Amino acid sequence: MPLLETVEQETGANPAWTILWLHGLGADGHDFAPIVPELLRPGWPALRFVFPHAPVRPVTLNNGVPMRAWYDLKNLDLDQRADESGVRESIAQVEALIARENARGVPPERLLLAGFSQGGAIALAAGVRRERAVAGLIGLSTYLPMGSTTKAEATPQALATPVFMAHGTHDPVVPEGFGARSRDLLKTLGMDVDWHSYPMQHNVCAEEIRDLGDWMDRRFKAG
Questions:
Q1: I need a labelling partner for 68 at 20 to 30 A (CA). Which of 58, 89, 92, 183 fits?
Q2: Where is the Phospholipase/carboxylesterase/thioesterase domain (predicted)?
Q3: pLDDT confidence of 40, banded at 50, 70, 90?
């Protein structure tokens, strides 16, 4: 499987940590690159931000129009929303990028796997299934796909991974209830989920970036 193309930013020489960040439906790897300077704090280790481009595929709910997507959307219902074959294909592509970071000197224990909306769904789905856990999972305005198979496929190592989830209370694209149900499922499995909600729609706000920075700061200090 060829590696996905990526946009990359390094905050210093010889990055000690990687943040692998997956964009939402119809966007690309450039979408969240501008967030880097807003997120950074003095005293953090050198970081490599990796923003991959999702493959282009037809999306059923968008009248079959091809766009960058991590999987097809066939139904608005939470349990039927994600195309399982597409989700598993994207998980494999994320695994290949994590392996490349390991080869570049950043092991999974110093990698944060993040995503917004569809990208967050893949980040959560990949993270709970890893035999070698990453340092943390970040899911913004998102949900956990294939929830019914998660309990059977989640690994004990992955279930010890800390999770940051955030959602807008007025989100018309991914209702906050979808995120809350996924949060509750992850907590039921024993995961430590740091949950935040904000009075916003399907986007990211300054307060959220601040809270995420606080959470990331704790990950770096623990690592």
A1: 183
A2: 14-214
A3: very high
The pTM of the full predicted model, rounded to 2 decimals, is 0.96
d(CA 2, CA 55) in angstroms, rounded, equals: 11
Is residue 117 annotated as part of the catalytic site, yes or no? yes
At residue 209, the pLDDT reads: 97
pLDDT(76) > 70: no
Q: Which of 23, 31, 90, 117 is catalytic?
A: 117
Active-site residue flag, 171:
yes
84 near 146, Cβ under 8 Å?
yes
Per annotation, catalytic residue among 28, 72, 83, 171: 171
123 class by beta-carbon count within 10 Å (0-12 exposed, 13-18 middle, 19+ buried):
buried
Distance between CA atoms of residues 180 and 167, nearest Å: 9
pLDDT in tens, 164-195: 999 999 999 999 999 999 999 999 999 999 99
pLDDT score of 80:
58
Q: Strand pairing of 193-198 and 65-68?
A: unpaired
Which residues are CB-contacts of 93 (< 8 A; sequence separation ≥ 6)? Answer: 1, 3, 4, 52, 55
pLDDT of 79 strictly over 70: no
10 Å Cβ neighbour count for 128? Answer: 24
Q: Which residue type sits at 175?
A: P
The residue from 194, 196, 197, 202 that is catalytic is: 202
Q: How many helices (H) and strands (E) does the chain have?
A: 7, 9
